User: Fold these one by one.
Assistant:
Number 1:
Amino acid sequence: SAVISQKPSRDICQRGTSLTIQCQVDSQVTMMFWYRQQPGQSLTLIATANQGSEATYESGFVIDKFPISRPNLTFSTLTVSNMSPEDSSIYLCSVETSLYEQYFGPGTRLTVT
Amino acid sequence: DAKTTQPPSMDCAEGRAANLPCNHSTISGNEYVYWYRQIHSQGPQYIIHGLKNNETNEMASLIITEDRKSSTLILPHATLRDTAVYYCIVGEGGKLIFGQGTELSVKP
């Protein structure tokens, strides 16, 4: 298993600004993932972040808008840049501890005004 | 796009078995079936996975048809705390592609 924490848990930001979300896991993991969950919707994968390599982004997501860092095997950050109200969502990180299980963080609830 | 189809919502009486169906007719031979659930305002939680055989753990049972084109998640004795959105996902590990899931309401 894995215990994941995210900071901040929630934030209210003004349009045009940026927010960096931190994801910390209590054990070393190779694969980390970032998801977005818009209000009332399912989860959408933003990118896969492996330590020691550039993040791999899904269709519709670009590095300039969602830069990701993965400095070590227990930590990652996701930045939401130049925010607009459409970026209001819950952002979740997850880690893969085996081929079969992913553990998710509690999420960061972002509101852009 | 998600490779699975699930009913958008289901109700279940407390203490009864909840049977959640999932269609995955385009599943390939190497892909597993995973089930996760998301209780309101929490991150998704892994429930169970399977490849070909039926599987059971402390949370649920997973029944996969012989042709692997559909599966059913069974919560044997549903409680109010099982009220959540249940996601059926197929894949080979790594990234998870979530569909819309089934919103299960367990009623007293």
Note: Chain B has a mean pLDDT of 94.
Number 2:
Amino acid sequence: QVQLKETGPDLVQLTQTLSITCTVSGFSLTTYNVHWVRQPPGKGLEWMGAMWNGGGTDYNSAFKSRLSISRDTSKSQVFLKMNSLQTDDTAKYFCATYTVAGGHFDYWGQGVMVTVSS
Amino acid sequence: DIQMTQSPSSLPASLGERVTISCRASQGISNNLNWYQQKPDGTIKPLIYYTSNLQSGVPSRFSGSGSGTDYSLTISSLEPEDFAMYYCQQDASFPPTFGGGTKLELK
């Protein structure tokens, strides 16, 4: 069955770089699209970016050039990297599959909570 | 970006009650509207896609409707497991954006 699991640090220092890995199972990254969504504590959901099944990427302009998404198809992993972290980057980070046919996020990971500390 | 506004932000309700959550887009989104449920442990589950299509495994007490800029999620008879956060999301225009959420809580 389709599963996604995010792994990453609990704590990152101010201005440093965040690296999170989404490890998937039950499908191939060459057939499913994987996106990243984050949720600050007590707040709503914010779309960050996409790794498309063909290998292309898209990013929310809100993150300007701070965000990078890549993948290793042989390891079934998608990577999120974001630099110049600020305290308002404290959030739970989710990876999710996106189906073009329905235009929605149909499988979600449990998320990883990251705190940016000064 | 298209702004999504949900109402109410909090909805106290009783078991067995029928409830409706609204979602308004800042411009027309041509039915490209999805609904998600987030449980207190943080897990997110898709409920409805493209306005009214039930995700596989979602109980039939959930339904969605709407058009243009105004959409709604209805739960016909609340069960204990339905008390959670609900989010709408538009997929009509890049980037996809979410509503601020509605907390469905036990009255």
Note: Chain A has a mean pLDDT of 96.
Number 3:
Amino acid sequence: QVQLQESGPGLVKPSQTLSLTCTVSGGSISSGSHYWNWLRQPAGKGLEWIGRIYSSGSTNYNPSLRSRLIISVDKSKNQFSLKMSSVTAADTAVYYCATEGPPSLNGPPFDYWGQGILVTVSS
Amino acid sequence: DIQMTQSPSSLSASVGDRVTITCRASEKINNYLNWYQQIPGKAPKLLIFAASTLQSGVPSRFSGSGSGTDFTLTISSLQPEDFATYYCQQSYGNLITFGGGTKVEIK
């Protein structure tokens, strides 16, 4: 069973870059068994998809955030990461990493989730 | 972008009640519709995928139906552990989107 764990700073200053890492255990990012995603949820609000990376390294991003995003993968460490630049208070949220799979499904669901990490943007 | 509209946004129900939550897509999404349960302070949990397929380990009192634009999540007999917020999610468009959520509270 795949397990995911987010890590990174819980506090980021406005205009700086938010950097988070998701460490995968119980499965290999290289296997192609899943797609690897980031999502977020502001306090008391709904879920927003940020983007995904495939084991090949190709990515898809939410168009509303694309200009500020980089999602990358480190297969040697079985991790994938999120960088979001020029953050503002509106980016304050719980950030989740999640797997999407299996790819054989039409519109695969988010089947495994990390516990989430609260990131606050404040000076 | 495909907009997902859930109704109601909240409901009060008693243990043993039958509960139905509706999700409507702004355009046809075939059956590319998933349902999640979220307990406060926890990550969402997958309940139903492909509109009607029960995720492994999820109790059979949960069921999903629908295709095209209109979908339903039904809890046949509400249990104490089912009081949570439920989200639908479409994966048909290039942009994955979620419904606004339905909070199920104790009456």
Note: The longest strand of chain B covers residues 19-25.
Number 4:
Amino acid sequence: DTGVSQDPRHKITKRGQNVTFRCDPISEHNRLYWYRQTLGQGPEFLTYFQNEAQLEKSRLLSDRFSAERPKGSFSTLEIQRTEQGDSAMYLCASSISGGGETQYFGPGTRLLVL
Amino acid sequence: AQSVAQPEDQVNVAEGNPLTVKCTYSVSGNPYLFWYVQYPNRGLQFLLKYITGDNLVKGSYGFEAEFNKSQTSFHLKKPSALVSDSALYFCAVRDWNSGYSTLTFGKGTMLLVSP
């Protein structure tokens, strides 16, 4: 399978704990995106990278959230001091930069904060 | 700012009948428009996109969409629905004049195709 992969697929944690998610993009894709999706809503943009540079961050990305893409390949999204409101599906997508580029999504990581 | 509206939370259609899932958008410049489909507990799968050129775009699984600039719409259509088309459909827009690369998604429309 050469699609976008995410790990873990599910995560249950207690409020106040830190969690880290990983995304492996399609190998030749230089752009990588993180989105959050809550029940009944469409995906909401969090941040994106071109190669290893983080180019945009949403206002949704509070200071408890941090994302990295250290070698321009895989990316991690860390949430510190989780809150119940962080419960959501976290989606990763990748693309090749270009005007009408298509973003290809991974299966997502479903986070439940108790 | 860019935004997308999907006015119907749910669309019901009988198998074999044509289907339409509506989408309208708002951008300050010119749009790139996308349709994605999501099955339960899965990520989004790309269906089709409008970049430029012909207003009628054909995509995967027999779906097509028509770009209408005057009505700022990009409705998804299929001539004959299948039960297996039942899923959650998302329209998304990117303003290619904005310099931003991010997509803005609608809230989604649940399509239910009955046998």
Note: Residues 36 and 46 of chain B are 5 Å apart (CA to CA).
